[in-house]
From TrEMBL:
<dbReference type="InterPro" id="IPR022813">
    <property type="entry name" value="SecD/SecF_arch_bac"/>
</dbReference>
<keyword id="KW-0472">Membrane</keyword>
<dbReference type="InterPro" id="IPR022646">
    <property type="entry name" value="SecD/SecF_CS"/>
</dbReference>
<dbReference type="InterPro" id="IPR005665">
    <property type="entry name" value="SecF_bac"/>
</dbReference>
<dbReference type="GO" id="GO:0006886">
    <property type="term" value="P:intracellular protein transport"/>
</dbReference>
<feature type="transmembrane region" description="Helical">
    <location>
        <begin position="27"/>
        <end position="51"/>
    </location>
</feature>
<dbReference type="Pfam" id="PF02355">
    <property type="entry name" value="SecD_SecF_C"/>
</dbReference>
<dbReference type="GO" id="GO:0005886">
    <property type="term" value="C:plasma membrane"/>
</dbReference>
<dbReference type="GO" id="GO:0015450">
    <property type="term" value="F:protein-transporting ATPase activity"/>
</dbReference>
<feature type="transmembrane region" description="Helical">
    <location>
        <begin position="141"/>
        <end position="158"/>
    </location>
</feature>
<keyword id="KW-0813">Transport</keyword>
<keyword id="KW-1003">Cell membrane</keyword>
<protein>
    <recommendedName>
        <fullName>Protein translocase subunit SecF</fullName>
    </recommendedName>
</protein>
<dbReference type="InterPro" id="IPR022645">
    <property type="entry name" value="SecD/SecF_bac"/>
</dbReference>
<dbReference type="Pfam" id="PF07549">
    <property type="entry name" value="Sec_GG"/>
</dbReference>
<feature type="transmembrane region" description="Helical">
    <location>
        <begin position="251"/>
        <end position="270"/>
    </location>
</feature>
<keyword id="KW-1133">Transmembrane helix</keyword>
Length: 351
């Protein structure tokens, strides 16, 4: 811990520095690879929408040591067509999700599950979600996401500056795209809990980005008057100064979310938690990456194109270089003449 704190002090004072801004093409390339992988996953597999979005039927059976294999076998005997999703909820429940069913098919699935697990049909929790309700939920989720982005852009533009808002939104879109791509690659269902997770990671990603931007604003407030650093250099210093803080806050946030994902959903079988925890875990990690490696370089690239910053860069890069004086021909001629002994004039009164 002392080594980490010592490193944080050296980074804050500028004694040790990582060139995040100068190596931005490397970070852009890494993000491009993840984005291409996300495009491939979305194209080949797509996202698996839960019944809350596409409609369908859900059956939850409460039985100690209920297994997924028994539930699948029971539904197969009922002759229900289409894809069937079965998952454990804790240790005493199993949930079966199917496409939209009519009353006869719904009763057939309930009877098959009751016979397989030795329970009554009344004890089976059955829910039917229509496709129109799913479309309404999808529409509201999109409206919420768009409204969130607009509010964030307006706030950042007023509290900081418009180009910081643009850089922050680029980082947010980067986070959402990669998170959705990995989510599609894993194959988890998109549920309302997933949407809540996405909105949560957007807020966390922006929180980390705003912390970095606030330090950038502090470092660049009088940058044109001092002419000691270019905008990119001051931005890089700000990222290094907040690096340890970003790492610590992200690690503290990832530990409980990782516990929910790997222990709760993985070991204990809490299937209802995996949708939310996976979105949070991936989003927190990607959001931390974008707040350090994507948002500040994008901001620096936008600001360095301004005429004032271009002139500042010329002053900083040209400071400390001694002017070169070209000697005139007369001076060269005098310098090349041979020098003999100099005769001193005699003073009067001396012999």
């Amino acid at each position: 811990m002392s080594k980490l704190s010592g490193l944080g002090g050296r980074l804050y004072r500028g004694e040790t520095s990582v060139d995040f801004i100068g190596r931005r093409k490397r970070w852009y390339s890494i993000s491009a690879l993840f984005i291409l992988a996300s495009i491939g996953a979305l194209t080949l597999q797509g996202v698996h929408l839960g019944i809350e979005f596409k409609g369908g039927s859900s059956f939850t059976v409460t039985k100690a040591h209920a297994s997924i294999e028994d539930a699948r076998a029971a539904v197969a005997t009922s002759g229900v067509p289409g894809e069937i999703i079965v998952q454990n909820i804790g240790t005493d429940k199993v949930r079966v999700q199917t496409a939209a069913l009519d009353n006869a098919q719904n009763n057939a699935v309930q009877d098959a599950l009751a016979a397989k697990f030795g329970v009554t049909t009344d004890s089976i929790d059955s829910q039917i979600v229509g496709p129109s309700w799913g479309k309404e939920i999808t529409r509201k989720a999109l409206y919420g996401l768009i409204g969130f982005l607009i509010c964030v852009m307006l706030y950042l533009a007023m509290a900081f500056e418009p180009k910081m808002a643009v850089a922050a939104i680029v980082a947010v879109v980067h986070d959402v795209f990669i998170t959705v791509g990995i989510y599609a690659l894993v194959g988890f269902d998109v549920t309302p809990a997933t949407v809540i997770g996405f909105l949560t990671i957007l807020g966390y990603s922006l929180y980390d980005t705003v912390v970095v931007f606030d330090k950038i604003r502090e470092n660049t407030r009088t940058i044109t008057a001092t002419s000691k650093q270019t905008y990119s250099q001051a931005t890089n210093l700000a990222v290094n100064q907040t690096l340890v803080r970003s790492f610590n806050t992200s690690l503290i946030a990832l530990l409980p979310v990782g516990s929910i994902l790997f222990v709760g959903a993985g070991l204990l079988g809490a299937g209802t938690l995996k949708d939310l925890s996976l979105a949070l875990f991936i989003g927190l990690a990607v959001g931390t990456y974008s707040s350090v490696f994507i948002a500040p370089p994008v901001l620096a690239q936008l600001r360095e194109k301004e005429p004032a910053m271009v002139a500042l860069a010329k002053r900083v890069n040209g400071r400390g270089v001694a002017p070169t004086v070209t000697p005139t021909p007369a001076a060269v001629d005098l310098a090349d003449r041979p020098r003999g002994p100099r005769n001193q004039p005699k003073r009067k009164g001396r012999k």
